[in-house]
Amino acid sequence: MKKKNFKWWIALPGVIFTLPLVAAACGNTNNKEMDRKPDQGNGQMDENKKPDNGNNQMNNENKPDQGNGQMNGNKKPDNGNNQMNDGKKPDQEKDKMDGNNKPDQNNGQMDDNKIPKPTPPEKKNDLEKYSDEIIYLNLYVLNFIKIGEFLMDQNEEKLLKVLNNSKSILTDLLDKKIKDKKEINLGLQLIDSMTDNLAKGTIKNFIQQDYVQSLRDSNGQYSNYLKLVSAKFSNFALDFKGSTKNINLLLEYWKKLNEESKNSISYKTIIFLEYLLSEIKNNKNKDIVDKILPIVMESIDKKTELDATKIKQIDEEIKKLNQAK
């Protein structure tokens, strides 16, 4: 891919346009009722006491209480449990207040206190083992280079993938960091706003106004995040100059990435590699790049890791690139 000049944003108009924050309301889903236990299935010891099931017992008549045993010895209860004729319950007769006769007050669900709660799986952080420099270089490509490309080709499907990858990386970065959290949260706000505007069809205006304003103005809404990412790239690229700059950047980045990866490389860390490979592709390097790029792009597209075998394949080709420069 021919190297592009990404100073496109300087000519674009920039005005501050603050998007409202959308707050998500979380309703109370607790539908438990009070634990009221109706007196169903209890023997009636008092002739004047009304059972909870609505059958009025005015005296010791022989009318069955809808299957509940009465204390009158002249009538057997419908449920087949014989009651003693002297009005006393046998010792083994329990209050039938267990779950078999209790009305279903929880809509057929178990009480929350009785449901075994599984231990939630530990969240995997794909970027835990990588240095901040590695992570920020990939964010530089996503949040600077790829956004500039969108203004040229207007490919919304590609931009959505860029935004999704950005959010995933920023979320992992926020999880592992103890500093720069304010700036990282600004980055997440930027990505959320862009995703929202993409869905509404206003993404181009948002980039030309809010995004560009944050590039131009140090007090812009997302300026602190964009300055942080840009500075990380500038520091990494500072010592690389001349016609072989991008090749040397690639060689240095691959060396650092390989050292930190420990035989498996996250797709989130090869976005910068894919960009540099595209930049150095020319007649001299074409054969080498054509062997590496498909491996890298497949991993990014499928969101899979590079295993030891693929890492070895890439490493062998990059060594050839080093010899050919």
TrEMBL record:
Regions of compositional bias (Basic and acidic residues) in chain numbering: 86-101, 111-126
Signal peptide: 1-23
Superkingdom of the source species: Bacteria
Keywords on record: Signal
Region (Disordered): 30-126
UniProt KW Cell membrane keyword: no
Compositionally biased intervals (Polar residues): 53-85
PROSITE patterns: PROKAR_LIPOPROTEIN
Protein name: Lipoprotein
Species: [Mycoplasma] phocae
Lineage: Bacteria, Bacillati, Mycoplasmatota, Mycoplasmoidales, Metamycoplasmataceae
